[in-house]
Amino acid sequence: MTSGTDEKAVAARLSTLAADRVSRSIDGRLILDGVSVAPRPGSVTGLLGPNGSGKSTLLRLLSGVLAPTSGVVTLDGRPMPDWGRRPVARRVAVVEQQADTLVELTVLDVVRLGRIPHRRAWTPATEADENAVRTALERTGLTDRADQPWHTLSGGERQRVQIARALAQEPRELLLDEPTNHLDIHHQLDLLHLVAELPVTSVVALHDLNLAAMYCDQVVVLRDGRVVAAGTPAATLTESLIADVYGVRATVTRPGSGDRPHIRFLGTAAGK
Fold it and tell me: Which of 2, 3, 182, 183 is packed most tightly, with the most Cβ within 10 A?
């Protein structure tokens, strides 16, 4: 069995997903304006910014669900449209903010949905499908919950199941749209620790700057659809940037040289 470090190294060799000067307009309104993002393979990249800054739209462009109005999203150097929808779905998995269903499903049923891109319609599951599902359940600590009904799960448990479903796709890239929303702090930390340990390239939209500082290797800060800063959390999350982008006064401390920053919020920039 390979270690988590070994798996990360493999992911770093296998994954390239990038957006080059992408813009997106909806009903004549510019949502993204010339954004370039190139997540380092095998790393966790955080998308930060106020509400309406374009984080969710950028994730949808990276997933291939939306097409840019201009610019290009590439996978392994090839424009996303050249791949076709099914090959992209085998490579890139998406975890939305919240998922729900009125259908009576078990945890196992939900995780098996991740194998849809790998199967033809109405064909039975193969041994490879079942192995992928079993591995996804094990990696997310859900093996003992496989037969539990979906509607009995807590919010944090549902998000973990959604990650298991995404992992069953056997992706190289994982995109998560504010996965910690509505979760208590225990489940927030638990979920992001899981994401940070996965052997994939992850891009995650977050609101909490301290969580981004703890778990992201790089961060990209958006405002009004444009990138205003990008780099490591230590280099990027400064007091001046937080005041400028969020309108909030804060102190940023680092316990030691090279350590991840901790942000203490003091109030709005207006002092209210």
Answer: 183
